[in-house]
Amino acid sequence: MSDIGHVLVLAGGLSYEREVSIRSGRRVAEALRSAGVDVEIRDTDATLVPAVLSDPPDVAFVTLHGGAGEDGAIRSVLELLGVPYVGATPDACRVAYDKPTAKAVVRSWGLNTPDSVALPKETFHDLGAAAVLGRIVDRLGLPLFVKPSRGGSALGASIVRTAEELPAAMVGCFAYGDTTLIEKYVEGVEVSVSVVDLGDGPVALPPVEIVADGGVYDYAARYTAGRTEFFAPARLTQEATEACAAMAVAAHAALGLRDLSRTDIIVDETGRPYFLEVNVAPGMTETSLLPMAVEAGGRDLGALCTSLLEVAVRRG
Q: Cα-atom radius of gyration of the chain, to the nearest Å?
């Protein structure tokens, strides 16, 4: 048995990504138990705080996706309760969770990221959707990629190849958030690079290449077995692989993250990587990218999660 003590895995929540979060929590709990760790899984409902006060855990592992799991709120509560946890601080989460803000930060560090415009729903009401959308196409060109400024799992995200498709894409996006991020779409190889820091500084795991059925890595492609083909490590040149690793580590540092993160990148035909977004609570399901990267790097998921918990305990 591990000497870490009582570990609390937080999973579920009330975001659109609840079911994915439950699956992530279950996978992490199973991996930790296989490593001899005493694990309790809890949802983030009204019973959480009383339960923690009556039986304080030694450390927590947050596997909540979207909303409170990634915007720092639950981590703030854990700090109020005096519970050490794996992952970024509340302040860092708030910056990373807001995609336009994260893009501005990494751009200030010299990282490539597609040109974009972030606009709230009210702007279209006040100024007129047709006029605003026309200027977006004039400025960024086509194709475009439309996604909510917050949230994950590609919910509300879509590729826009013609100007006529943009209004419907915006409506679909606003169903998942009040602000939309419209990016210039970069054709290329989609990869994800996970970063872990076990106390000696952030290190990139092997990049995972994503080849989605139909060409769009949407919610169904992410969480339905067989809908997407993955290559770990990615089929990139050595130079492109190193550039992606450097970008992920730099984004991790620029955004003030700790312990673990996952950066999504597009590599264009010249081998140049473009930062898309970063995830402070990477998925841990059977089709998620971080566990694939862990395996490709010759590591064991249970051992890695245990090491991350040990780092959090020492920090706490």
A: 19
